[in-house]
Amino acid sequence: MTAFTVNNQPVRYRMDPETPLLWALRDASNLTGAKYGCGTGDCGACIVDVDGNAVKSCQISIAAVEGAFVTTVEGLSRDRSHPVQQAMVAENAVQCGFCTPGIVMAASVLLKKNANPSEAEIEAAITNLCRCGVYPRLVRAIQRAARVQAGRETIAAAPPPGIDPADAARAVPALTPGPAR
Length: 181
Hints:
The relative contact order is 0.15. This protein has 181 residues and is of the alpha+beta class. The chain has seven helices and five strands; from the N terminus they run E-E-H-E-E-E-H-H-H-H-H-H. A hairpin with a 2-residue loop joins strand 1 (2-6) and strand 2. It has a five-stranded mixed sheet, with helices on both faces. It folds into two domains: 2-76, Ubiquitin-like (UB roll); 83-149, [2Fe-2S]-binding domain (DNA polymerase, domain 1).
């Protein structure tokens, strides 16, 4: 069995040790934020944080992360309050959303290592492919996230995912049939 920590929870996988981390996360742990994009490590849709490094999870086996601390986009912030998530929304740097989790994870790792990256440093660190072409907004979002993280700026929080429990508990009015057409 392969054991490591995922989103601050110890996990033991009863899988072939050569299983790519991406598939262990998605299939065994139901953490589907990391996406399967290319399978060759070129697109970055599968990036997760492994011991403080942005790692393409389709390219590393679970055996290679034995004993490591892995953080996925789900573990970064369940309520979307992480500065990178907030800035991505505020700067409209999200379109279709497929590549977004990998970009968010790569950006969060970058900001852990470099609290105030230049545009060139951002472009060098964020090698993710985005078919929607959000790159100029992405640079602005990461620079804004750096300011938020440093306490120099605030962003109004995006609403948390899901449905408000009060709304879910409301009774739905019965449908009355209208006239036949």
